[in-house]
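To close the section, here is one more complete example, presented without commentary so you can practise reading it yourself. The ligand is 2'-O-acetyl adenosine-5-diphosphoribose.
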Amino acid sequence: MTPGEQTLADWLVGARAVFAFCGAGVSAESGVPTFRGAGGLWEGRPVEEVATPEGFRNDPQRVWRFYADRMASLPSVSPNPAHRALAEMEECYDPFLLVTQNVDDLHERAGSRKLIKIHGSLMETRCTACGEVLPRPDPVSSAEVAAGRLPRCACGGLLRPNVVWFGEYLDRRQFDRIYGFFRAAAHVPTVVLVIGTSGVVSGGYGVPELAAQIGARLVEINPDPAFQEVADLALAAPAGELLGRVWPEVRARRAGD
Ligand code: OAD
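Output:
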């Protein structure tokens, strides 16, 4: 382990509470493309066409083509050591909370339950008429979409992916849970992990500021760090590789091995 990784390990061994704020980079080593940068989903693609309410109103078939392809790719990818480490952490820390911007299902498949999917889920649809949110265990068929048969609700309304698009509001109740974590963690040693997010969309959703308010240690894990000015420690490495090295040691030391 590098000296920085050793520091993270020491902090995690001594922590009572852990909060993780994650983005697309956590799933990169599983083979899920990130949004920004070379090879990213938004590279050369007009975001407003596929990730805004206007884009969906103008051309729902184009939007569904994009999301059906994303859904279809999920069964062939698997959680990596970063997802698994985060899932194990929820058994070791109290309070613990994982907030992800990712709409894939890799955190759930790794076992995470104390999880907020702040940008929604690819595994759900929402009716544009009655508003019902429905789980979607099987992907929407790209062939059906190509044939112009878009998914519909039992009420007849057009279904949309249950993801947050640009220009849409986040669910305020999720922020209540986030603030609840920081109230509960205010008087215990806390590590806040910011992993694999460019912060371009969220600016961190106030997480670095909340961490500072309670005196938590803020650690960023990202090969191209975006929060290093506010982080106590910025580790420039892929999250799966790094947590695959650091977490087993932390787990063993906490268990007293
Ligand atoms: P981005 O694509 O903006 O950023 C991905 C981040 O992951 C970058 O900072 C990369 O350096 C980093 N990264 C790449 N590989 C990594 C690895 N192996 N380990 C750790 N980090 C790695 O994705 P997000 O910040 O998640 O929103 O984007 C936030 C939102 O913007 C998404 O939820 C989506 C998008 O537009 C909507 O669709 C509304």
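Once you have examined the tokens, check your reading against these statements. The radius of gyration is 19 Å. The first helix runs from residue 3 to 14.
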